[in-house]
Design a protein that fits this description.
The structure holds 2 protein chains of 2 kinds. Chain A is mostly helical. Chain A has a domain at about 65-215 and about 250-265: Orthogonal Bundle (MetI-like fold), CATH 1.10.3720. Chain A has helices spanning about 1-25, 30, 45-55, 55-90, 95-105, 115-120, 130-135, 140-150, 155-165, 170-180, 180-195, 200-205, 215-225, 230-250, 250-260. Classes of the chains: A mainly alpha, B mainly alpha. Chains A and B meet through helix 1, helix 4, helix 5, helix 6 and helix 12 of A and helix 1, helix 4, helix 5, helix 7 and helix 9 of B.
Chain lengths: ~260, ~290
């Protein structure tokens, strides 16, 4: 009985993905025949390369990879530096500056999108990679999470390192960062997923396929290729594949990574 | 002294980025709301003070936007949590092949909003969509073209796209429940439904609260699915606050109007977070 329910639930959850995969492998004529074909007896693998080349999926995926990696690296770096300063260094205004960083968690990006677009327009960066990356160089969540983690760093090690004449920068990259690898990894996964899945900002600042990310590319594909349904289906699968693989590889970090945004959304 | 200088230097990159792309634009947005867009694009916009705020926020259009947004949240959040919790509970028993089922239930985390939306855009297409065929609506009026069904359809897409996330969240929570308490209740002869309602559910309330907050906030920010599936139509049936904001700012050249909506959205989300925190702080059981 439990299996019946499990299989039924699995079938419902999988149905949209399964149909998309099957339809990607059917010929355009088969896609629209009724009753629908639910198993591709003669799969058309070529549709994937059509979507990759003529559907510009290759370009979109490359753009997304570049932009997402840049955002993730930048957020990781700036958050690490700031969190380190907040935990290990003494300077006037430390608390108030930390609260300023926390306050950014209360500001949804949508509430700032109009002036941000005007800024990008003013410096002439519309439709470039920097336009996609610049608003996301720092992360309040990153600073918050790293600070929490760094606070647990044993004082004895810190004192010993100081006595040995280890400077702050060296101490951060040789001791604090390696010990905190799990939280750095979880945050990186969260930052990567958030950046990869961005939709509104890339929609607003991109105008040509040469810089469009895969989310916006998919939108273009579904708008323009509607007479070639199989290509749209194949493109959808290609767009989801990198993240599916990534999540499979980083299964262990997944829960921490997904809930890293606990303080935001 | 040198230590202080280095300290400031280390937080400078983050603070500079926040200054330019969070704090300045937040203030600028509020300021833009004081300016009325000119009747033709090339004329200067003129200062009207709070007049535009009161006009937009008091309009029936805004009330309708807000009503549709709240309806969308009500359609997605409770159902999404119930589905996620039910699947997590279902996948809790250690039976053969359960790992495969867990992978399947988590699988939609790999689908972004755009992926999920394009999948359903084709499935719901009135001419060729398989779901239209299954619902017996093929060739007729499309579900997304029907003012009554467009918003629920988008809610369904959103729930499906979030199943993976909610499932993973609820599974992790279920696995962290204290075994001894559940065992004790079993020994005491509590039925499984009583156990679920009286023990599991209260212990899970923090995570349900977390999922609810995330759900409500992301419900107010839901954009991609509306952009791909209906563009706010048909007949404004899916015109939520955020989509109205986008159209006013980037399609109708009306940044002042959009800025007012941005400020409203900012305060709504702020308020929601505080209200929910307050509410759950009093009722949530923080077991273990």
């Amino acid at each position: 009985m439990r299996y019946v329910v499990l299989i039924l639930a699995a079938a419902i959850v999988l149905f949209p993905i399964y149909v998309t995969l099957v339809d990607a492998l059917l010929s355009p004529q088969q896609v629209v025949t009724r009753p629908p074909t639910l198993f591709p007896l003669t799969p058309h693998w070529g549709t994937f390369s059509t979507a990759f080349k003529e559907g510009d999926l290759g370009i979109y995926l490359r753009n997304s990879a570049i932009v997402t990696l840049a955002i993730t690296a930048a957020e990781l770096f700036t958050s690490m530096l700031a969190a380190y300063a907040f935990v290990f260094m003494r300077f006037p205004g430390r608390r108030i500056l930390f609260f300023a960083c926390l306050a950014t968690l209360m500001v949804p990006f949508e509430a700032t999108i109009i002036p941000n677009y005007q800024t990008i327009l003013k410096i002439g960066l519309v439709n470039t990679y920097p336009a996609l990356v610049l608003p996301f160089l720092a992360s309040g969540i990153g600073i918050f999470l790293f600070r929490q983690a760094f606070l647990n760093f044993p004082h004895e090690i810190q004192d010993a390192a100081r006595l040995d004449g280890c400077g702050h920068i060296k101490f951060l990259f040789r001791m604090v960062a390696p010990i905190n690898r799990p939280v750095l990894a979880a945050f990186s996964l969260f930052a990567f997923l958030s950046a990869w899945n961005q939709y509104l900002w890339p929609l607003v600042v991109t105008q040509t396929n040469s810089v469009r990310t895969v989310q916006i590319g998919l939108r273009q594909l579904s708008l323009t290729n509607f007479n070639q349904l199989d290509v749209v289906f194949a493109g959808t699968i290609l767009a989801a594949l990198p993240i599916a693989l990534l999540l499979f590889v980083f299964q262990r970090q997944l829960v921490a990574g997904l809930t890293a945004g606990a303080v935001k959304g | 002294m040198r230590e202080a200088a280095l300290g400031y230097l280390l937080i400078l990159p983050a603070l500079a980025a926040f200054g330019v792309f969070v704090f300045y634009p937040l203030v600028k947005t509020a300021y833009l709301g004081f300016f009325l867009a000119p009747p033709t694009p090339n004329l200067p916009s003129h200062y009207v003070g709070f007049q535009q705020y009161s006009q937009v926020l008091g309009s029936s259009e805004f009330a309708d936007d807000l009503g549709r947004t709240v309806l969308f949240v009500l359609l997605t959040v409770p159902a999404g949590i119930i589905v996620g919790l039910a699947l997590a509970n279902l996948a809790q028993k250690k039976v053969r092949g359960i790992r495969a089922f867990r992978t399947i239930f988590s699988s939609t985390v790999a689908t972004s909003t755009a992926v999920a939306s394009v999948v359903f855009f084709t499935l719901l297409n009135p001419q060729v969509g398989l779901l239209s065929y299954l619902f017996g609506k093929e060739g007729g009026n499309g579900i997304l073209q029907d003012p009554h069904w467009a918003l629920p359809a988008i809610a369904m897409v959103t729930i499906w796209a979030n199943i993976g996330f909610t499932f993973i969240l609820m599974s992790a929570a279920l696995q962290s429940l204290p075994e001894d308490v559940l065992e004790a209740s079993k020994v005491d002869g509590a039925s499984s439904s009583v156990r679920f309602r009286q023990i599991t559910l209260p212990l899970l309330s923090p995570i349900i609260f977390f999922a609810a907050i995330i759900g409500v906030i992301s419900g107010f920010q839901a954009f991609g699915q509306i952009d791909i599936l209906t563009q706010g139509g048909p007949n404004h049936a899916t015109l939520v606050v955020i989509y109205d904001l986008y159209q006013q700012a980037f399609q109708f050249n009306n940044p002042g109007y959009a800025a007012v909506l941005s400020v409203a959205l900012f305060f709504i989300l702020l308020l929601l977070t505080f209200v929910q925190f307050w509410f759950f702080q009093r009722r949530v059981s923080y077991g273990s």
